[in-house]
Protein 1
Amino acid sequence: MTKKKLVEEGSARVRKELAPHYYIDKVEAGCDEAGRGCLAGSVYAAAVILPPDYDNPLLNDSKQLTEHRRYALREQIEHDAVAWAVGVVTPEEIDKINILHASFLAMHRALDQLKVRPEALLIDGNRFDPYPGGQPYTCIVHGDARYQSIAAASILAKTFRDDYMNRLAEDYPMYGWSRNKGYPTKEHREAIRRYGLSPYHRKTFNLLGDRQLELDFGD
């Protein structure tokens, strides 16, 4: 085995530790969303303020965690955070303002609910609609894999949205939402072709992929 191979395998086993904060001497809230690329359901976002000396080496981008680990970490975050909240924007609102602005609005709604006012914001991604509170913000690409507060927000947004889609799946089992969570899987799109739309589908999205024009919205 070559030296390069050994380095690659070693790095795969050890996760880079996430930074505890971005701003110095400011109360900062990390923000992230879940469900932006889905065909159905609301988009969720969370805002999390962690203690200034907080360090949890288990925090990571929610997509890199098992379901069991995500829910275990959610309990820790809810217990340890100085403040946390979840914001939601409905499919109807998404269709009116588009998913990008809906994602930012969900973050705004989460921030609105925080019991502690942040002095600065950390946003996962490369864009953001400024928060009406006027706090300075920094957009960080792949921030959920770089900063603990954003990772914590990604876990809350993901798990709360998963709970929501699981509840919807009880009334609409044909779409497989308990498995695909509304994302554009083959199973999901085949169900849309067969059964049509639910009230929770986003009509402005490419629901059928290449066969979009065959879909009757029933309007």
Protein 2
Amino acid sequence: MIHTDLLDDYIINQRQIRLQKKSHRVNSFLSNIAKRINLRLQSLTILLACVSLISFMSCSSDDTDEIDKRKEFTQIVENRSAKDLLNDLYVGSDGDIQSLARMLNVTPSSIERLRKGETEPTDKFDKRIKEVAIYYYLHDRSYRQLRACLKDARWYEYLIWFVIDNPGWFIFDFILSLCISLIIAEEFPLPAILWGIMFIVYIVAAVLYFCVTPAKMDDKYIDTINPTIEVLI
């Protein structure tokens, strides 16, 4: 009986020892994994910190350049007359005096007199002209961006401008999407339907872009000056 008890105690002790060894191995394994994860997290944190620092420095540099450029352009604009600035905008608009008048919220006849030097702008309108001119110069003299900023562009013009500015990409994407839609149309008709809708939208946009002309502004100051905008020289 005593030998049996001793044998049972021995077996129990051996099991406990094996369990302790297994537990130790598991703990060591988990500890190694935790250390590796911790090292990778530290490396990732350092990498992200470096990327963030570089991005911040780049953004700071870009912001500084933008501020310097704005200061320089502001000085240039301040030294120029409203007549010269309006003529620059007139050239940028390709002679579209109606568009220019809509953006500046004045009548076309006033713009014509001001840019020809027949009248001078009021102080308030002179400031407005210079604000618009600064934006125009800061954006590489892009009249399209100026129109978009001043809410003079219509939805279909954005679509056509994209096609004009990216003809190669647009044609490639158009043909590729058409081919994919036709290949999978039997099992998945939705892409083909969406492609057809997109095609119709671009056709409508092209028709509107080339055929629709905005209505001319009602000009009440053809024979007289607008006292809130201009003064006689």
Protein 3
Amino acid sequence: MAENTAISWAHDTFNPWEGCTRISAACDHCYAAARAERFGHGELWAGKLRRTSADNWKLPLRWNREAAHWNGPRRVFCASIADVFDNQAPQAWRDDLWALIEATPLLTWMLLTKRPQNIARMVPPAWLINPPENVWYGATIENRATLAQRAHHLADVPAALRFWSCEPLLEDLGDVREWLERRRVFGIGGVHLIIGGGESGPKARPPHPDWFRSLLGQCAEMDAVFHLKQWGEWGFGSAPARCVEDGPGTFLQAVSITIDGKSYDGDRLHQFGDGTVMVRVGKKSAGRLLDSVLHDRMPGERHRDDCRICFTDLSNPSAAGGPNGLCRSCNEELPF
């Protein structure tokens, strides 16, 4: 299945096959598995995969022709209802996908996986020597356990660009600058992009705003890109950030919150231990803003505040404060 997408960080999605197996906490409320079960294809999430149609496989070729007339990269998310590096997928299917990727050099393929340990042994050997410029490898990092399990495997793969998808983000990841610093200092092995997002769906778990603020701040410090895809079901926005303090280190229990004239209470409120309250307002109402700012940047896209040479965000004080009026990242003279 392939289609244009509303996903903020991609222009199209392509699924060479359907089906996967749940392997970590991010999979607990998988929308694709729920969708398959709803349509009577639960076996696709129990070890049986299904290759998509020949017509579907032709769509990226059309996108590649169209991309010749685009002003900027055309990013393809692969795969939204499968995992390209799933052990259960036939290698012949993957080989067909690699050939398709090589035939579509104007598309930027974002290969997102929960199995980065498989990348090096499943991609063409030539890709490990000369990584394709149009292939980005990504790993889902939803908590500290998967950070410890997956980050080093992703870092070991030669790549034009590496990214983390921290969606759904289920806890604070702590200090991740060592992964960003490896890119900045050595130019290899590190992460160029972190995509953050909250969970959607009826069983969505609420994220804490500070988890995203931490990733944003660390990306800014290390000249990496932070992109906030969504809050998911639970919003922060105009809801009170803290409950009323009732003695040192304690907070009153949130009972009801009114947003835009609508009252929320009961299980539509979640209060963290520090008193921060999240409100289940629904994905559309929750939106994408963090502290009233849209974090929509992507690598390779020029913005008005970017360095004209290396694309560093010069609106970031740590980047704009280089010696002698030079960009801290590439030493180019700043335009102001």
Protein 4
Amino acid sequence: MEVTKEVTKEVPTIEVEVKPKVKQTMYFTQETEDSIVEYNTTDDIIQRNIIYTKKIHPAFYKLAEIMIHRFKFYNFDVSHEDVKHEVVSFLHEKIHKYKAESGKAFSYFSIVAKNYLIAENNKNYYHFKRSQGMETIDSERNIVNEKVRADLIEERKDFIDLFVQVVERYLPLIFSKKRDVQVADTILYLFKTRENIENYNKKAIYILIRERTGISSQHITNVITKIKIIYAMLYKEYRDGNNITNLSWYNFQDIINN
């Protein structure tokens, strides 16, 4: 009887070269955030200068550079380098306002930097508009500024949603009288449905509030005045990068009474 031998073929092994992952260089790290907290809590001027120079300033400088180029903030009458230094200087002015409970330092200072650049871009645009004839403006449209203004409008929309949320929470504490609460509640309702009242003038809005509440224009004016003050103060906090939705009643009072 013939015995057949089983022939096994040797399978060659293929060596796969595994390239090590390239670690991304992070310019704004947890160490940066910790350094900002340390900077704000120490009273030693020399130590503060060392912390800022070595650990915070490089991150602020890189953040300013990235924000300028990412959002194309090029409408300045000075060099990009000067603009970067202006942004860094502004961030340094606002550094004392950062609190760890406000959230991540990177998000906080990104908002502060972006809001500063938006405001300065708009300011430069309006200076240019005043110094040039309307024909020049029309024939030399500045697309960058149009984008900046669009961003500002979008930012306002985001803020209004947050504003309504905060004021609704403290409405019974802001206004002690029932009629004032009714008027304020109606105003907030109009904020929520603002897309539907864009074509209404001031008089028409007063009529809408009066029809909804049955309250006289004099009382409506008093409530609107207070709402305007709250709006302005909260918007300033928002532009400074603070999270207004986390405000306690104590902090809320402190802001609107300043």
